[in-house]
Specification:
It is built from 4 helices and 7 strands; from the N terminus they run βαβαββββαβα. It is α/β, with parallel strands linked by helices and 142 residues long. It has a single domain, classed as DNA polymerase III subunit chi (Rossmann fold), CATH 3.40.50. Strands 3-4-2-5-6-1-7 form a 7-stranded parallel beta sheet, with helices on both faces. The longest helix is centred in the last third of the chain and has 16 residues. It is globular, with a radius of gyration of 14 Å.
């Protein structure tokens, strides 16, 4: 069953997603990031070309001709047929394919709308019996 980690109190979800990808990819052969929209996909795509500064995170979009051979997929399209190791969700709803993944990282922004959506996702997973863990990102920075 998918293990789900919630990262809460996040001021910059795109930056946190980039850090999670950098941490997950060396240990897992495939990482999929679901963004809420095309703008967020573009912002995260650009960030992954420069972060981390000392490394390279091979990534592309789901529609790329190289998607089958690329270990990190960044997109707002709610589809996924590829390998299912780590999924990072920035979207307000649970991705319909999340249960295929070993691990799911839910990134919850700090604004009221993001917090409300995060609580709904938490409730959704809890009601279905998933193991949930919470990490307060703001507290980790102290």
């Amino acid at each position: 069953m998918t293990v789900i980690d919630f990262y809460t109190h996040v001021d910059d979800p795109i930056a946190v997603a980039a850090r999670l990808v950098a941490k997950a990819w060396p240990a897992h052969p495939a990482v999929r990031i679901v963004t809420p929209d095309a703008d967020a996909t573009e912002r995260l795509d650009r960030l992954l070309w420069t972060a981390p500064a000392t490394g390279f995170l091979p990534h592309c979009r789901l529609s790329s001709a190289h998607a089958d051979a690329t270990p990190i997929i960044v997109d707002h399209v709610a589809e996924h047929d590829g390998p299912a190791c780590v999924l990072i969700n920035l979207a307000p709803a649970p991705p319909p394919f999340f249960s295929r993944f070993e691990r799911l990282a839910e990134v919850v922004g700090s604004d009221d709308e993001a917090v409300a959506a995060g609580r709904e996702r938490y409730r959704y997973y809890r009601e279905r019996g998933y193991e949930l863990r919470a990490h307060n990102v703001a507290a980790l920075r102290r």
